[in-house]
Each structure stands twice: as C-alpha cells, then as structure tokens.
Amino acid sequence: PSQCDSFCSQNYPLYIRSVPTENELKFHYTVHTSLDVVDEKISAMGKALVDQRELYLGLLYPTEDYKVYGYVTNSKVKFVMVVDSSNTALRDNEIRSMFRKLHNSYTDIMCNPFYNPGDRIHSRAFDTMVNSMMMQVC
Q: 80 near 70, Cβ under 8 Å?
C-alpha cells in the first residue's frame, strides 16, 4: 500500500514522506492539486474556520488509486494525507487521530528555538513518528 504525508504553509511543502519512495513525484502532484481543494473548503466555511482551533476537512477527494484527506490548523498550516484506496480498514476517526498526532509533533518542532519557521523540517523525532504512523497503515 502507498501513503503520503505532507503539510504545507503558504502552499509549499515543509515536509513530505511517501512509501514507497518511487511514487514521490506523483504524490507531490497530488498534494499540490489537493491544496486547491483545501483552499476551496476553507473559503466555503469562512467564519466557521476562525471560530475553531483546528479543522479536520475529511476526505478532500478520491481518485482511482488514492484517497486524499485534509486538515488545517488555526495558523493556516495545511496537512494532507494520501492513502491507498484499497485500504478500507482506516476509519474517519483514525485519520482524524493521525492528523492530531501530526499536529502535535509539528507544534513540538515549532517550539524548538533552533527551527526557523518556514524552513523544511529535518527532525529525527518527527521522521520516527511519521514512519511509525505510516507502518501502522500499511
């Protein structure tokens, strides 16, 4: 099974990981395409987004091979998860839980005084957390 985790600030990826790695270019395209859908959903929700701390957008769109899920933080950081369509074991609440884990780990990175916001993320702890999440799904 394939999966891709990514999150973006101002529509350029700060972190992207895919399994297997040979599909990484395809996942980059899928993530960038899904950002348009995220922006549409955010603008459609308008004021409701401002009133919430975080926003799980749910399934952004399905393709023949993948399901693309989205999540936005209160600081407008966008998380995108691409999961193999054949994985029917994942439920909506499990996807939401995975996004919360990503959000918490992202917050830990932001609290690091040596991290410059907007730089690509290079963190062993974050990589380990993402890899363990991806192995649970595969």
A: yes
